[in-house]
Amino acid sequence: MSEVLREIGSIARALDGISNLEFKELDLTKGQYLYLVRIQENPGIIPEHLAQLLRVDASTCSRALQKLTKQGFIEKHQLAHNKKNQILYVTAKGQEVADFIQRENRYSEKQALAGLTTDEIATLTGFLQHIRENIDKDWQLVKKGQHREY
Questions:
Q1: How many CB atoms lie within 10 A of CB 113?
Q2: Angle of the 47-54 helix axis to the 58-70 helix axis, nearest 10
């Protein structure tokens, strides 16, 4: 059996653990940094699209957004033509924190990819994108309440 998914999971957990510890001093709880940075990268995103981007359910996304709003990292604006959806923006306080998180992300990526050539990084990125696309099919299926055939 291939160890690819174990290796990907191990890398993801290690980086998430590092981030959660380093960002604790910023008053960010587990995983909130992901929401903040994605909103920074996509100003005006709606919660539904953010949840899809992060591969989380709507209630998980909603709880994280409530905390980030309460902490003053993001703000929500109502759409005039659609009161149901809100658009999300990073506040000045959130921008400062998001910039710090982006610096940490660049450092972690540099550390993770040390020793690889530009071509190897491009190949690896292509492989990982292909894997993500394969998994997205199952994620969409299960998200809709269906089951995969083993």
A1: 14
A2: 110
Q: What is the pTM of this model?
A: 0.84
Nearest residue to 98 via CA among 2, 19, 14: 19
pLDDT in tens, 43-74: 999 999 999 999 998 899 999 999 999 999 99
- The structure tokens 């920074």 sit at 40
CA distance 99 to 120: 28
CA-derived radius of gyration, the chain: 17
Coarse DSSP helix, strand, coil percentages of the chain, rounded to the nearest 5 percent: 65, 5, 25
Most confident of 2-16, 69-83, 104-118: 104-118
Q: Which amino acid is at 120?
A: E
What gap in Å lies between CA 113 and CA 134, rounded to an integer? 23
